[in-house]
Structures are given as structure tokens and as C-alpha cells.
């Protein structure tokens, strides 16, 4: 799909790279930027023992809200020089409801960008942003690691494929991006079964993409005992991919959190820009 509105979520300690990434993407696509500046705070005290500290908490909250508003005003001024359509909003969030609140904003955007600053001091905000976009708004996220310059008009794309609903959603969201790019449909340890991958794993999705005038190569790779995320990242580097497109959370969030998984690894430590959908 085309991306006409891009939501970039940043914390109070956002880096210049976050702003540069968001504005570059909007300039590239002629898209409108929604910049959401977030202050994430712990849940307010509610028990009886907290009454003595509640006034302190309220005062601290008010100070943070004022700092947040000042930061948003500063960013509004700095964005004027980019010559794009934009709006800047500030949001004080209770961490208990952050997924839902960010999801409310994401519903009115086509893409949610997670910049490198959220992989550092604001990692908690990173997870709330990803979960809010994927689960509360069903919107794709673009996760950008540090020192990477993303493009939504990439030359080479790795499409991670395993014939699941989530992978199909990722491919669908990436159709416009894949048009004109060199696409590598990548399967790790695929099973040739009639019910899932078919007798020739990857052939069905390659035919689907061909009907959208997207020429793709099918790469079937053995894991050789390595994590699937490691195989995907290394293959992306080997083919000089600019972007990885994939589905997210084929397993439940709880299972991913306890046992780990491809989605969690690609979100936590991406090697390249990752477009993820669910």
C-alpha cells in the first residue's frame, strides 16, 4: 500500500537521527509527518500507603508535561526547514495503557517509524510503540537501527517468508515498496507440504508477486543449527539488502517474551531497517 501519513514516535531524549529519518522518508514519498513526542511514566499510586507520595507524584507529572510541551514546540520550529507537511503532538503516557494510547494515534497513519533512539534509553517506549501499532492499530512498523539510512524505495529487499498469515500480511503491506526492487523471497528450513509451503516452497508467493509485476528470486536456506533471525540477517547482508520485509508475531507475545523468537530478535537488535506487519 502507499504511505501518505507517517507517524514517528519519539521520547524526550530523541536523537537528531530520529528526526532526520522521519523527514527523509516523508520527503521521499511526499507524505505527511505526524511526530508524536511521548513522556512515558509509571502508573500513578493508588493504594492507601501511596497517599503521602501522591502529591509529589502529581507535581512531578505536571513538570514533565510542561517539559514535554516545550520539547514539542521546539521540534515544531525545527521542522519548518524541511519543507514537508507535518504536525507535532505531545503525549504524557501512563505505561499501563501506553500500547492502547499509541495505537489510537497509529490508526490514523499508514506507517509507524521506530527510530534508533528508542533502542537505547527509551527501549520500553519502543516496545509500547511496536505493540501499539501491530496489535492495537494493525499498522506496519519500520524499525530503523542506529547508523542506517532507510528508504521506502529500496533497490534490494529480503522478504522473509514462511507461508503464515503474518508473512502474507507483511508481503501485502510491502507491495508498493517491492515494485521496482530486486526481491529475494527467503525461506529457512522450508517443508514441502501441500497444506503449507506446497511442493515447491516459495513458488506460490513468487507467482503472487509476479501478478503485481514484481520479479522475485526464491532463496531456500538451511539454518544449520543457527537461529532463524541470524540466518535472515546474514543473508540480507550477503545480498546487500536495503530492507527486510516480514510478518510479526507468528507466536503469541507471551511465548515470544518467555522463549524468544524471530520477531522479538528482529525488533530488539535489527541489523537493517525492518518493515514488519501483522
Question: Secondary structure elements and their pairing?
Answer:
Layout: E1 5-11, H1 16-29, E2 32-41, H2 51-79, E3 86-94, H3 98-106, E4 111-114, H4 123-136, E5 141-143, E6 156-160, H5 165-173, H6 175-178, E7 182-188, H7 203-210, E8 216-221, H8 228-238, E9 243-247, H9 253-259, H10 262-268, E10 274-277
Parallel strand pairs: 1-2, 1-4, 2-3, 4-5, 6-7, 6-9, 7-8, 9-10
Antiparallel strand pairs: 5-10
Helix pairs in contact: 3-4
Characterization of this structure:
The model has no long low-confidence stretch (mean pLDDT 90). The protein folds into two domains: 5-143, HUPs (Rossmann fold, 3-Layer(aba) Sandwich), CATH 3.40.50; 156-277, Rossmann fold, CATH 3.40.50.620. It is of the alpha/beta class. It has a ten-stranded mixed β-sheet with strand order 3-2-1-4-5-10-9-6-7-8, sandwiched between helices. 40% of the residues lie in helices and 22% in strands. The chain is built from ten helices and ten strands. The chain is globular. Helix 3 (98-106) packs across helix 4. It has helices at 16-29, 51-79, 98-106, 123-136, 165-173, 175-178, 203-210, 228-238, 253-259, 262-268, and strands at residues 5-11, 32-41, 86-94, 111-114, 141-143, 156-160, 182-188, 216-221, 243-247, 274-277. Strand 2 (32-41), helix 2 (51-79) and strand 3 form a beta-alpha-beta unit. It comes from Rhizobium tubonense. It holds the Pfam family Usp. Residues 217-278 form the UspA domain. This is Universal stress protein. Belongs to the universal stress protein A family.
Amino acid at each position: 500500500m502507499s504511505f501518505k501519513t507517517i507517524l514517528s514516535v519519539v521520547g524526550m531524549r530523541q536523537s537528531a537521527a530520529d528526526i532526520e529519518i522521519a523527514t527523509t522518508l516523508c520527503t521521499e514519498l511526499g507524505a505527511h509527518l505526524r511526530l508524536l513526542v511521548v513522556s512515558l511514566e509509571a502508573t500513578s499510586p493508588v493504594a492507601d500507603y501511596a497517599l503521602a507520595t501522591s502529591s509529589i507524584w502529581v507535581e512531578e507529572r505536571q513538570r514533565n508535561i510542561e517539559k514535554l510541551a516545550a520539547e514539542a514546540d521546539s521540534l515544531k520550529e525545527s521542522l519548518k526547514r524541511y519543507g514537508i507537511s507535518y504536525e507535532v503532538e505531545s503525549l504524557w503516557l501512563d505505561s499501563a495503557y501506553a500500547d492502547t494510547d499509541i495505537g489510537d494515534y497509529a490508526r490514523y497513519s499508514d506507517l509507524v517509524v521506530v527510530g534508533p533512539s528508542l533502542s537505547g534509553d527509551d527501549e520500553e517506549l519502543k516496545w509500547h510503540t511496536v505493540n501499539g501499532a501491530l496489535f492495537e492499530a494493525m499498522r506496519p512498523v519500520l524499525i530503523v537501527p542506529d547508523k542506517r539510512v532507510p528508504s521506502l524505495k529500496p533497490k534490494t529487499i529480503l522478504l522473509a517468508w514462511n507461508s503464515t498469515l503474518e508473512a502474507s500480511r507483511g508481503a501485502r503491506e510491502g507491495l508498493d515498496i517491492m515494485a521496482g526492487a530486486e526481491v529475494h523471497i527467503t525461506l529457512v528450513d522450508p517443508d514441502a507440504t501441500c497444506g503449507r509451503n506446497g511442493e515447491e516452497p516459495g513458488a506460490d508467493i513468487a507467482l503472487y508477486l509476479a501478478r503485481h509485476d514484481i520479479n522475485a528470486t526464491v532463496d531456500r536456506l538451511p539454518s544449520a543449527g543457527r537461529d532463524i533471525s541470524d540466518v535472515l540477517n546474514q543473508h540480507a547482508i550477503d545480498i546487500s539488502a536495503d530492507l527486510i520485509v516480514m510478518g510479526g508475531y507468528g507466536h503469541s507475545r507471551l511465548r515470544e517474551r518467555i522463549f524468544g523468537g524471530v520477531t522479538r530478535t528482529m525488533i530488539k537488535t535489527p541489523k537493517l531497517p525492518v518493515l514488519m506487519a501483522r
